[in-house]
User: Which sequence fits this backbone?
């Protein structure tokens, strides 16, 4: 059986300039703090970041934005992080704003291998700019394309040594979807438990989707 446990130093081997990274979390809740700190310390740059929001300047993915490491953000909300807005307005960073349900479905499509989906959300607004419009049964839809990433960094509550994951309350948010839609997936659980300790019915993300588990301090 492949041993998936790695330490933070080993995780940094998967970081490189110009990559696209999905990071879970909502307002910082459910974001993987140790992996984000390692990404920041690695000095990689020109990142494309796919995340539901940019949290706060000093929370979640906020420090990545504030450090100037991100060239583009694809998110549904940036209002709580003034640095994101400042960099967008100044032209230092590109921001693609996506309605939150559309963002979730684009990621799901990327994970499911679908070519995209049709949605009426955004029709008649700036959201439709540059997108193909399709009319079905007298209703206009936008064709939204799937999102995938080179790497997904996700936060879990528990993991077993195979990588079966559970999540805690609202910290679940985008993490399970992102685990489906990246070439490499690294999970940061709060604790790692023995195989069989997690009831199968409680597994949200199966081990087959997880490439590596960042070893919590207690398991080192």
Assistant:
């Amino acid at each position: 059986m492949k041993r998936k446990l790695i330490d933070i130093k080993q995780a940094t081997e998967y970081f490189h300039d110009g990559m696209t990274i999905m990071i879970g979390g909502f307002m910082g809740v459910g974001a993987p703090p140790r992996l984000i700190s390692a990404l920041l310390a690695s000095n990689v740059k020109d990142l494309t970041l796919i995340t539901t929001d940019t949290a706060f300047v000093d929370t979640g993915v906020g420090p990545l934005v504030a450090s100037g490491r991100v060239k583009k953000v694809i998110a549904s909300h940036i209002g709580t992080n003034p640095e994101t807005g400042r960099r967008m307005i100044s032209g230092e960073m590109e921001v693609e704003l996506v309605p939150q349900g559309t963002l979730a479905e684009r990621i799901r499509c990327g994970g499911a291998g679908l070519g995209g989906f049709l949605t009426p959300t955004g029709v008649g607004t700036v959201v439709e700019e540059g997108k193909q419009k399709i009319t079905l049964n007298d209703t206009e839809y936008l064709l939204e394309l799937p999102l995938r990433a080179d790497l997904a960094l996700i936060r879990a509550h528990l993991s077993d040594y195979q990588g079966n994951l559970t999540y805690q309350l609202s910290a679940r948010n985008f993490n399970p979807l992102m685990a489906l839609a990246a070439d490499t997936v690294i999970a940061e659980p709060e604790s790692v438990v023995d195989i069989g300790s997690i009831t199968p019915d409680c597994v949200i993300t199966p081990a087959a989707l997880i490439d590596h588990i960042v070893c919590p301090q207690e398991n080192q």
Summary: The chain is about 20% helix and 30% strand. Helices lie at 8-11, 33-41, 62-66, 82-90, 100-112, 175-180.
